[in-house]
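Case 446 in the screening queue. Each case pairs one protein sequence with one candidate compound; here the compound is (2Z)-2-iminopentanedioic acid. For every case the pipeline is the same: read the inputs, emit a complex structure as tokens, and attach any notable structural observations.

Predict complex for case 446.
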Amino acid sequence: MDPRVEQFMARIKAKNPAEPEFHQAVMEVAESLIPFIEEHPKYKHAKILERLAEPERVIIFRVPWINDKGEIEINRGYRIEMNSAIGPFKGGLRFHPTVNLGILKFLAFEQVLKNSLTTLPMGGGKGGSDFDPKGKSDNEVMRFCQSFMTELSRHIGADTDVPAGDIGVGGREIGYLFGQYKRIRNEFTGVLTGKGIEYGGSLIRPEATGYGCVYFAEEMLNTREDSIKGKTVAISGSGNVAQYAVQKVMQLGGKVVTMSDSNGFIYDKNGIDEEKLAFIFDLKNIRRGRIRDYADKFGCEYYEGERPWKIKCDVALPDATQNEVDGKEAELLVKNGCLCVAEGANMPSTPDAIEVFLRSRILYGPGKAANAGGVAVSGLEMTQNSMRLPWSREEVDDRLHTIMKNIHQTCVKYGKEADGYTNYVNGANIGGFVKVADAMIAQGVV
Ligand code: NDP
Ligand code: 2IT
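Case 446 output:
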């Protein structure tokens, strides 16, 4: 390892003990940026990288609520306000039992560079709770959201910090959170994105991350005179991102053969079609059931407790969670002919897996570039809220498509190597960094 990276990481680890995911995210960025910063000493003197790794503010709070049995439950709530150099803090909320400070700091850190890549004026943040929405009634979820927002409301605002969804936080949760914010503050503002269409949401926001990820994959394939059309695609997850990634792959003429949840994955050799996807939407968003039901319903293969990466595919879209593709699985993907990986999830590939993809010279689009479509349309939702004027589906989708093309170009600009191979990891890290870094220098030591 580069000794400068090693030194930098030793300080990060000492200062942020027991946060392995945060270390992992910072290390990947440091490996791209430290050589770049050496060539641009103004960033070194201003200690931009050191400042980027220190949140502007971290808020941790108690979230007490009463379950359907009348018992008191206590969860922990968080908001990491990471960086506001180029706009208000912006980023999702995650409700999942594995949520802890380190996970949210990794997500907030990634968010800063991702939001910069979108070209829109958004700083970076992330929040959430160790609350598990699985198996809870709508009333329980509502009471939890109301308690969570009762505290969070004093820290956020349309020009201060604008949360949205992530794992475990979808339209239902955003609705309850928004209702409570409005009630406490007596103001109807764009304080959250991912809102319902009736109360200030944007068309295409639900679709945006999945669609954007597939647009990004298409751009990468285009650099090799190739496209999604006719490709066999393996997808993990079956939540918001995965569902709309499947839809866009279908629209572009590809065949999706896998989806998963935390219990296992389905392998549908014939490909997921419109009717089967409608079943998934109902299963996951209304009935909140397990992916196994898909295999029972359509008679395809189901692998309990496994991940889909052993299935032969041309394109892989990891759309579930962090560290869900390890080095061995990456080797297997490449060996089976996979030529493009685009990450709908945040940091789904382990460092070993990334090394395999880069060494194999396949097209590898890291999450902060490939999944930026979600937050990009959140930014467009903020614009529409400020104008108090909604845009049509076409208008938003066109803008999303243009933004994903721009992000791709930025990655190529900063990531192209001497032999012509684009290292999208370096491209995204450096491309996202420059705007934030220049804004921080302009604003002085803050
Ligand atoms: P959802 O909650 O809608 O869906 C999450 C999916 O991933 C579910 O299928 C879930 O299965 C699976 N999953 C979650 N945790 C695990 C785990 N520990 N192990 C295995 N499977 C798991 O979330 P989203 O679709 O919104 O988010 C998916 C990924 O995309 C996350 O990494 C998120 O950070 C990222 N992302 C989301 C954006 C958005 O706009 N929503 C934007 C950019 C990135 P199960 O139901 O069994 O838990
Ligand atoms: O990881 C992400 O970019 C998100 N969960 C979306 C954040 C947002 O503010 O829309």
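Case 446 observations:
- The chain is about 50% helix and 15% strand.
- Residues 90-92, 111, 114, 164, 166, 193, 346, 374-375, 378 surround (2Z)-2-iminopentanedioic acid (ligand 2) (CB under 6 Å).
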